[in-house]
């Protein structure tokens, strides 16, 4: 039991050092020596747990991915059962799947900030987009729905997914971010409001 606790504490120190270095130097430039120096461990201890810095990154990303997937899956399944007539009621209350996912992201804010930053791993963004795509598509099909054919499918998906990812990334970068509940409400409204509805012009200009 004591050994397991020591291992966990060591991994936490390694992770904290790694996240700090992504912010300071970027994923490409940082080294294992940098990590061990800041974590105050020897190189042998690092290599006991990870093959290299990319193995460490993969371990962290897999953990984040799994937990986001878990947070989303049940709520998206519930969303698929909503009827069209319930949309107005949905708009008045936060979308549970967003709350669940954002709550988890907020609990790992520093990690997500680093990995989703320009210094981090842009491939992880694509992994998250693919995850959201799969979960949304599954939810639609369970509801016997599908994507509109008003434009090519790849553009439809890109508009939806990029909007979600960019909004969350913007939230992560804010020095004084809103609560997950407020951002969940923003994301929910963005699903049902057109860009035209987000712009206001004086009566004289209409």
Automatic annotation (TrEMBL):
One of its GO terms (molecular function) is DNA binding. Pfam families: TetR_C_8, TetR_N. Residues 8-68 form the HTH tetR-type domain. Keywords: DNA-binding. SUPFAM superfamilies: Homeodomain-like. This is HTH tetR-type domain-containing protein. Residues 31-50 bind DNA. The keyword Transmembrane does not apply. It comes from Leuconostoc fallax. Gene3D superfamilies: Tetracycline Repressor, domain 2.
